[in-house]
Structures are given as structure tokens and as C-alpha cells.
Amino acid sequence: MKSAKAKRTRNNVIVHIILAILAAIWVFPIFWVILTSFRAEKGSYVSTFFPRSYTLDNYKKLFTDTTILNFPKMFMNTLIIAVFSCILSTFFVLSVAYCLSRLRFKFRKPYMNMAMVLGLFPGFMSMVAVYFILKAVGLTEGSLIRVALILCYSGGTALGFQIAKGFFDTMPIAIDEAAMIDGCTRWQIFTKITLPLSKPIVIYTVLTSFIAPWVDFIFAKVICRANADQYTVAIGLWKMLEKEYIDNWYTCFAAGAVLVSIPIAILFLRMQKYYVNGLSGGVKG
């Protein structure tokens, strides 16, 4: 009895030590980026790993020096694109997931199989074709680039319906049947009954739909090209590391990385409980 307890205690200690080491390895790069964002020495090539002195000038420069890289403009572009993409993507994903969960129609299973196969291929494989389609309809110049990016990010999101469908499958269908007996339409059932009862998966879908355009680089770079006034923060941070800018903007890059991560971190921390519940509901389905 005592030996079994001692063995269990020893195993727990070993596991906790390993987890602590892994946590330190994961957190250390983040800690280093935060320190670098306050570093007073400019340039990417310095003799010390940690900063020798600290300053807030890097953060000030991001918002005051807009002659070369307009970070506030990039931030607002990204925020607008992310918000509208989030709204459309959430509607598409939840609508498709509800239809596939509750309705029975002729091509239901072929569609789900097709979506699963298409999900095996990375989205950027189609970026060249998508660009020429957008160019053909005149969405690759000026402020219409934002519209193009919103369409790119939200257009194919319905293929990622699996988790939301799994959550809807766990809800008793008797609720829908009772509502239909009372005279509700499918739209009323979806908006007034199903969605209020599906807060976890709604929040999970909102989070994932917001993060995708917020951090994307490939599609934004292909569609924006040289239109600097339409750049997103991902492109702006990448430009800061190019050879003509890296000496003056390297520490600002670290500051920008910290600022970009703050909204996502706040959302995850505040919605973590619902985020986990949404995933567990999808797994159960």
C-alpha cells in the first residue's frame, strides 16, 4: 500500500517536472519578444541576448512614424477585415452545420464527404486562381481589396462545419419538433431556440473566425501586392524584417507583435470556458 502510494507520488513529481520544463520552453520565446519590444538598442544584431536598457520609444514609433510603415492604418485594416469576416464566417458555419445536423436532403452525405476531402488540402493552394477571379471582377485595387479579403476569408468557411455540427447533434431533436408543432419555422427555430442554447459553439466559432483573418499573411500578401495603404498587420510586421527596414524597425517589430497578440489573448482568457465547452460538445457529437 505504502509502496504504491510512494510510486504514484514519484510519478506525479516526474510528470509535473516535465510539464514545468515544457511550459518554460513554450513561454520563454514570448517572454523574450516582450523584453525585446522594450529594448533601447536598435537593430537586429546585438552582442547580448537580453536587452541592456529599456525604453517605450518602440511603441511610440509604431504610432508616430508613419512615413514608411503606417502601423495604425494596418491595424485598422486588419480590424475591419477581421470583424466583417468573423460575422459572415460565423453565420455561414453555424447555418451549414445546423442544416446538416437537422435536415435530410439528397446530397447531404456527398457534401460532407466532399468537405472532408477538400479540408485535407491547404487553402493557399488555390490562392493564384482566387486572385485572378478577384482581378476579373475588379476587386484587387484600392479599398475594394478589403472586400476581396473578406470574401476570401469567409467564402470557404462553411467547409469547416464539423465541430459545430457535432455540437448541434448533441441537442435533442425533440426541441425542434415541439417548436414546429407550435408553429415555428426552421429559421425561427434556428435563431430563437437553437442559437441561444448553443452559446459555447457560437463563441468558439466567433473566436476561430476572428483569429483566421487577424493572423493570415499569405492571402493578404497575394491580394494586397504593392498597395501599401491596404496592408494588414501581418504584412506590416513582415515588411519590418526586410533588409532595408530591419535595422530601424526590428524592435518595433517585437512591439507590434506584442500589440497584435493582446486582443487575441484577452478574447481567449475571457472566453476560455465557453471555448473548451464548444470543443467538448463537438467531440461528443
Number of helices: 13
Low-confidence stretches: 281-285
Radius of gyration: 24 Å
- Return the average pLDDT rounded to an integer: 84
How far apart lie the N and C ends? 41 Å
| Biggest β-sheet description | none
Q: What is the element string, with H for helices and E for strands?
A: HHHHHHHHHHHHH
Task: Specify the overall morphology.
Answer: globular
Helical content, roughly?
over 70%
Fold and architecture overview:
By secondary structure, the protein is mostly helical. It contains 13 helices and no strands. The chain has helices at residues 2-37, 57-64, 71-102, 108-118, 127-136, 144-155, 162-169, 173-181, 186-194, 199-215, 218-224, 233-240, 246-284. Helix 8 (173-181) packs across helix 9. The radius of gyration is 24 Å and the shape is globular. It starts with a helix and ends with a helix.
Would you summarize the structure shown here?
With 285 residues, the protein is mostly helical. Helix content is 72%, strand content 0%.
